[in-house]
Specification:
InterPro entries: 2Fe-2S_ferredoxin-like_sf, 2Fe-2S_ferredoxin-type, 2Fe2S_fd_BS, 4Fe4S_Fe-S-bd, 4Fe4S_Fe_S_CS. This protein is an alpha+beta fold. It contains 10 helices and 5 strands; from the N terminus they run E-E-H-E-E-E-H-H-H-H-H-H-H-H-H. It has 3 domains: 73 residues, Ubiquitin-like (UB roll), CATH 3.10.20.740; 82 residues, no CATH class; 31 residues, no CATH class. The chain has a 5-stranded mixed β-sheet, covered by helices on one side. Strand 3 and strand 4 form a beta hairpin.
């Protein structure tokens, strides 16, 4: 039986591609030849895929493009963000644009930041077996198991601080044998910390009072009445710009 030639996104046979510049990746079992310097996301688009979901910022911040992959001749599953991870030859990959995780509903204004609030909303925290799978899979290199242990202890401030860089990609929850939704636990902790624990900024209260008193209304009215040319001149030519 004739062997089917691998094809690129432009539908050119492998033989037509310059040697050494392309690698083979597998998307849902289908083989594609793509330029070796592309990220997974760009490689899939090169191969002809159009993203409707599973892509957002394209800069490694939104967590929408969590990807699981395995390389040829390796049993180990690897993870990464499709917008940041560069393709490898023999990469078998699939995306997880959404993970059906448990998310509690709550009114943050009615919650008190006591030591049991996180466990009350997410009792599965107590099922943690400290396997560290969540930390190993995190593309942000966050100590996920560390902040889960802090959550069990009721240390809200610690959870908020340790999870600050979380992009909520959901990869940690996908590997957890205790079925903990780590990123939703961390989100509750950060909301509680911001609303109930963090010291209030005195300058913020003063500025809010200035806004309520109408201090800035004359200036805003003046801006609204300006033409586009006047606004451009004010913004690009006349304003004081900090030196680089």
């Amino acid at each position: 039986m004739a062997k089917r030639a691998l094809k690129t996104g432009k539908k050119k046979p492998v033989e037509a591609q310059p040697a050494g510049e392309f690698v083979t990746i597998y998307v849902m079992g289908e083989a594609y030849r793509v330029p070796k310097e592309l990220t997974i996301m760009k490689a899939m688009e090169y191969a002809g895929y159009r993203f409707i979901r599973g892509c957002g910022c394209r800069g490694g911040f939104c967590g929408a493009c969590g990807t699981v992959y395995r390389t040829r001749d390796s049993y180990k599953l690897k993870v990464g963000l499709a917008c940041q991870t560069v393709v490898e030859d023999g990469m078998y990959l699939t995306q997880i644009p959404f993970y059906p995780a448990n998310k509690k509903e709550y009114d943050i204004s009615q919650l008190q930041p006591d030591t049991q609030v996180l466990v009350r909303h997410y009792p599965e925290l107590m099922r943690c077996i400290a396997c560290n799978s969540c930390t190993k899979i995190c593309p942000q290199d966050i100590d996920v198991m560390g902040y889960i242990q802090a959550a069990i202890r009721g240390d809200i401030a610690r959870v908020a601080d340790m999870s600050f860089d979380c992009i909520m990609c959901g990869l940690c929850a996908s590997r957890c044998p205790a079925e903990i939704v780590h990123y939703n636990v961390a989100l509750l902790a950060r909301r509680l910390y911001g609303a109930k624990i963090a010291p209030r900024a005195a300058h913020l209260a003063r500025r809010l009072e200035e806004i309520r008193s109408g201090k800035f209304e004359p200036g805003l009215d003046k801006l609204v009445q300006m033409s586009e040319t006047e606004l451009s001149r004010l913004y690009y030519q006349e304003r004081d710009i900090e030196p680089e």
